[in-house]
Amino acid sequence: MNAAMSDDPILFSRDGHIARITLNNPTQHNALGAAEIGCFCDCLDAVETDPSLRVLLLTGNGESTFCAGASLKQFRSGDMSGELFSTLTDRLAALPIPSVCALNGNVFGGGAEIALCCDYRIGVDDLRLLVPAARIGICYPLNGLQRYVDKLGLGAAKRILVASEELAAQTLLAIGFLHRIVARERLEAESDAFARHLAGPRAAGGARDEADTGGIARGDLDSAGRGPAGAAGTQSRDLQEGLVAQREKRAPRFTGE
User: Which residues lie below 8 Å from residue 192, measured CB to CB, with a gap of 6+?
Assistant: First the structure.
């Protein structure tokens, strides 16, 4: 998991409080076989066990494709299964820190769900998305179906998964799959700046936890049952620093405490 080893299909590095995972097999459209999924999960292990990390930034190498999803060749050989792929998407979706996906190119198949598992998605303005599972007779996993409906709504989920529509970046922005569209030459700078923004105040992680697991997403927020992350955010040193910085009209110097 060394970013300097550019021949590795999955690259991992740390930059301050930011973890970076890069899909690094552009000649195969960054498709994921069983070995790549294992390496990806190892990277997530490293993120989860490092308390200094506050944000994950996920992207792909190459200018054509962010990710083509699971390797169809390995599906045919039996080395890949929907259950194995779901292990990765469930892990990514449950990551305890905010995640940003910088979509460097087109998104196909399970690659769309990998992006959807992240909290924020920034894409290049000429990307397109296509999930052809229904066209080729693949039964999409139930947890993946639920994820699409929860995040995009039933109508958008049916367009992507049932009708297998090919959608352009502007449409993906309109339905909420993308949060921001940028010119290709600005993707790295914009996604890096946004990740650094999220890595600032400690409260960002707590707010993300509350939104995902505290009931907001389900429409049944229980203020009496707020999680520990949310409670910690109201008592943190970062909060005190933020209040002082606002009063003194300067940029806050957050430490994550």
Answer: 57
